[in-house]
Amino acid sequence: EHVEASRLRFLALGDWGGQDTFPYYTEEQWETAGGMARVAAAVSEGEYEEHRPAASFVVSLGDNFYWNGFEDDVDEEMRFQETFEKVYHQRELQLPWYIIAGNHDYCGNVMKQQKFSEDPNTRWSFPDFNHRVVREFSVDENEPSVKLEMILIDTIHLAGNLCYPSESAFSAEYFAPPPGVSSDQASMEQAGTTLDWIENALKESDADYLLVVGHYPIYSACSHGGTPALVKTLDPLLKQHGVTAYISGHEHCQFHFAHDNMNYILSGTGHDCCYGSNMKEFLPKGGELKYLLTDSTDYSGSSGVRGGFVSFDVTRDEMIVSIHRENGDVLYDTPLLPRDQLLKRSDAVVEVK
């Protein structure tokens, strides 16, 4: 899709899936929706340093319906209305929402979530486990376009999943990393197919900015920590193909980590905040922890932050990534360069031994 514009803005939201009892959302989720609407709105000159266009879409990073997704005894239409439609009701959020599944979604039937995409009038776009979104923009037809591509992937296919009852939440067992792909043939074939699909999508992309979006983080400083299966299989592909950033959720914290010319952005605070920084010391050496929002211990409240999300402001020269708290205030922002600029920088680095 191509639009005439000088900028493209969008939001990303992780782990926003409410709760499985009335009213089926949390107070923090409701507050965060209001902050998202504030940031998604267009702002004219005079109120802002320059005209800011409205956001064009929202990306969901998974864990869309707590506790266990759409289990057999769940009225999925009711949950869809109460946890999604009623919470994100603001005019500014009546945009396409591009969806992936998280581990909690996989404790139910993910295909029931995909079925909501079949409504031609819905903003909910979840056509498959893995899908691609491409947006292009330029000031006019005579100027070369700027291309943004997002490759949305199913990390549960790549790293496995275990389901726990809500009573065991926050136990050591619950915070253990994903178990890896099951050894049965169907799971192994599914993982192989997913990884092949990702590799082909990366090879085909000629985007100026290329984002890969998954639920599980590759690296994390928070309570779950990184995902060993993704460090082994996914991370090398992202670096090989010059991906701009990997965007994830899963951890109920916010995080920017840079390592080997790759950026890792994490925001899993869509319905509450925050985990502790239990796994910070296990980040790979040589990387730079640029930003981390956590509580002192899981949900101690020490940060004073109740929820949050990320926004992206894309221009020809840079993409500004901003991490927001629940009311929309910016906690941190950073510029990311187009892929051709990153390539020039990496080519110019000389290793000194």
Question: What is shown here, in short?
Answer:
22% of the residues lie in helices and 23% in strands. The chain has eight helices and 15 strands. It is globular.
- Average the pLDDT over all residues and give the rounded result: 94
Across the major sheet, the strand order is 1-6-7-8-9-11-10-12
Strand content: 15-25%
Gross morphology is: globular
Taking all Cα atoms into account, the compactness measure Rg is 19 Å
Which H/E pattern describes the elements?
Answer: EEHEHEHEEEHHEHHEEEEEEEH
Question: Major beta sheet, specifics?
Answer: 8 strands, mixed
Low-confidence blocks of residues: 347-353
What is the percent of helical residues?
A: 10-25%
Number of strands: 15
Give the oligomer, counting copies of the same chain as homo and different chains as hetero. single chain
Count, helices: 8
Q: Cα distance, first to last residue?
A: 47 Å
Explain what this protein looks like in three dimensions.
With 353 residues, the protein is an alpha/beta fold. Helix content is 22%, strand content 23%. The protein contains eight helices and 15 strands. The chain has helices at residues 27-40, 76-85, 110-115, 155-159, 185-204, 228-233, 235-240, 339-348, and strands spanning 2-4, 8-13, 57-60, 97-98, 124-125, 131-138, 146-152, 209-213, 245-248, 254-259, 262-267, 288-293, 308-314, 319-325, 330-336. The strands form two sheets. Strands 1-6-7-8-9-11-10-12 form an eight-stranded mixed β-sheet, with helices on one face. The chain starts with a strand and ends in a 5-residue tail after the last helix.
